[in-house]
Amino acid sequence: MEHIISVLVENKFGVLARVAGLFSARGYNIESLSVAPTLDPTASMITIVTEGDDRIVEQIIKQLNKVVEVMKVIDLTEAAHLDRETALIKINTNTKLEHRDEAIRICDIFRAKIVDSSPTTYTIEVTGDVGKVEALINLLKPLGIKELIRTGRIAIGREAGKTAARREPQADKA
Amino acid sequence: MKKTGAEIFVESLKQEGVKVIFGIPGGVVLKIFDVLHQQKDIEVILTRHEQGAAHMAEGYAKATGKAGVALVTSGPGMTNIVTGLADAFMDSVPLVAFTGQVSTNLIGNDAFQEADNVGISRPCTKHNVLVKDVNDLARTIKEAFYIATTGRPGPVLVDIPKDVSINKADFKYPDKVNLRGYNPTYEGNKHQIKQAAEEIMKARKPVIYVGGGALFSDAADEILEFAELTQVPVTMTLMGLGSFPGTHPLSMGMLGMHGGYWSNMAMHHADLLIAVGARFDDRVTGKLSDFSPEARVIHIDIDPTSIKKNVHAHIPIVGDVRTVLRQLTVLLRSLDGNVNERRQQLRPWLHQIEEWKRVHPLRYHQDDKVIKPQYVIEKLFEITKNEGIVATDVGQHQMWAAQYFKGSRPRTFITSGGLGTMGFGFPAALGAQKAYPDKLVLCITSEGSFQMNLQELATAAVYKLPVKIVLLNNGFHGMVRQWQDLFYEGRYASSYLGKVPDFIKLADAYGIPGFRALKPAEVEPVIRESVKHKGPVLMDFHVDPFENCYPMIPAGGAQHEMVLEDPPELRKADKGGAAKKKADEGEGILPA
Q1: Which end of chain A has the smaller Cβ count within 10 Å, N or C?
Q2: For residue range B286-334, what is the model confidence (pLDDT) as tens digits?
Q3: What is the value of ipTM here, to two decimals?
Q4: Which of B7, B16, B50, B199 is an active site residue?
Q5: Does domain A82-155 have CATH number 3.40.190.10?
């Protein structure tokens, strides 16, 4: 199944290679990857989305924990979490006249923004969960997508999820 | 006053208490070697190949428990130690390897003798670092030794560019390390330990299964106390040999692919396995789905990744083996005052193990014509009175050494387990000898393994390292030949080595005396003569080329399905006849 793994690491060269190596060494593909510094500039957060056998992903997570520069690993898959990605989509608007209007209508529905415009193209920025981004892409396809770039997902655990989990055992007792 | 990187390097190593470095110089590390040359606290052993340096550092580390140190140049110097790093990584050997690198401004330019040292070694080191600034050098060295020797030990590589060794910085050796992401767990969880103690009291067919982790944790005394208190029999992996006295009544010796029939049967029928610093390697478990089907598993290991990797652990305890065993023993003592009652309860189980041992002991048949390799090792054990250190290579001789050399002290059986590196034994023996110049060090090897690093005969001769080389010469890659006999209908594809070279003449070329034994009666005199000799010696035993190593769990077989002797078709083939004649003449066996 799909796993979203957050890895807090030292912000140093070579760390990403070590982290990625644990996946490639087992023949596992990384579906998406995002890396950026945290509030503390000496640390970075890596978000990895991967698909694979639970037992092997568990092993990879243990191995990640062993890497000297890795400070924390969380598998967000099981916990309540929010995930988002951003896509930039450049579409053709010169095939049919009504395409420019259609594009604006679709963007409205998805709360996407047109961030660049030329006589023959619009560039659309959208942020959302994977379902939303993919739905938008599918609707824009008939208009003719010239270029598409996605950031890959970032994810964060939900506080509410944690409280809910803590309440459950008490409910059992009652 | 500012110091150069090379001076900082040497001063840092002194602070770490390093006494000896194994290595070979080259362009980018000349400055470091130059500084080493002008001081006396650290000795440099010039090996003949970088692989030799890496294995010597491993041998030194395995014999002492301290980090072994290798220093080699960039490019080929570094790539030549990769096997040593991978070997140390698999067997958790504390090794700190320093590699030279081209100057920082040239990195990535395909400069002369440039290699991506950190990239190449990443998957086979516990940690590795490229030092880009001389100001980081002392701290990096401090961290390297700390990481290599703590937690689950392992190799650490520090890559030092030429300009970093020349540039100057203030030197102050840090007194502690600060690594946010590295905090090995030493103490076991109390709740888990309590559960483990309850399981141990309940068990009627328990086994203690000890791996190499016990040796690096220095837990031999604790294991002895724990086993005697609980009266639970002990079996050891290849890497765990020496952690429990091989001659103790509770010792079952080695388990696994070539382990004793009784120890594998005990594992298979056990109701409780207490795994101590072991990792359930496939050479131990055999077919996983049939592994110890009735057993509950307590798994004590400092490395969480070892736990539940191959075999489910009912009670996982992450922690240092010695610390956890102490905690467990204290708790057990408070729970159980009555050792005699315990003895009564486990008597049927110990009796059953004795019975297995009686029915299928280790055995071989020594006639008066051809030397059996097992006989040589039994004689060695008998004559050296188990006073020395044994280093082995990899293959049949290694398994026989593990079976018949019943070592009883920790760190006296040095071998390449996980990676199975042929060519490991001889340089590792030299490293151990360097650590203990006055001890008897035996290198049990065979002509196949020995030829993979025999250039180190020069190192032995020059530094007068009195290693006794025990060559079990059968003219074959013996273990390969055994598998070809058992699983490939006796087609000896590329396993025949023949009678080259003449090892006595070879040793003579290095000024090392050699003794040869062709008949069983000559074995004992050769050993006695060699052990008496002060310097390095080579013993060339021409042993039965067709002797197979049993018991054996065939690859993929279950632990209780051992092959105990040559199957009938092999016996019928008349090993002493046609096949042997062919081998003697090198006929029909040489490359097909």
Answers
A1: C
A2: 999 999 999 999 999 999 999 989 999 999 999 999 999 999 999 998 8
A3: 0.87
A4: B50
A5: no
